[in-house]
Specification:
Helix content: 40-55%
Structural class: alpha/beta
Largest sheet: 5 strands, parallel
CATH topology of the largest domain: Rossmann fold
Strand content: 15-25%
Number of strands: 14
Number of helices: 8
Oligomer: single chain
Distance between the termini: 26 Å
CATH superfamily of the largest domain: Response regulator
Radius of gyration: 18 Å
CATH architecture of the largest domain: 3-Layer(aba) Sandwich
CATH class of the largest domain: Alpha Beta
Length: 225
Amino acid sequence: MKILIIEDDPSLREIIRTTLEKERYVVEEAPDFRTAETKVADYSYDCILLDIMLPDGNGLALLEAWKKQHKKENIIIISAKDSLEDKVHGLDLGADDYLPKPFHLVELIARVRSVIRRNQRDGATFLEYGNIRIDPDKFTVTVDGKPVELNRKEYDILAYFIQRPERVVNKMTLAEAVWGDHIDQVDNFDFIYTQMKNLRKRLAEAGATAEIKAVYGFGYKMTEK
């Protein structure tokens, strides 16, 4: 899961980033309006934490533009500007939640989990495809009810694909989602091949009824055997 923090206060941005990374999210940052605008145009995120008062613009203008562009990111407004008018306006524009500053970090984490669960999993507390089940809150994987041990990136790859069954995903998109935006600067994607090879082996050995298949010239696709 990849999250973008749009916040001009560097100390708060760092605290949020550290907290989210401890929860195993891939985290990107934008300190201002222009950077946020560019990042959301170039990359995709599972959730955006959006401050309203930015040094070079208003966060609500970003939100309005993204909704007109039919962007699918979950958006939580985090702002010290805690007026009822701003809250209602933000929610009317399409924000998924509104969290006034100051806030407790544990509440922020709960809000992030909630909007992702509500919008990407139809409210389910687990992800499931074939006989594979993932508990995103505990980072556990089972096949036919039996635990399967995966490393961090193997788990992240599986979680990404299990939410997109039967959909072809190219290597660049996968790399950005699991390793972060900067990964588009690498020369090759051999590191994906290594992690994917190990993941497919572990799933096969566990007796999974679904697999991640290579689609020649495009990328990978999760499908039932």
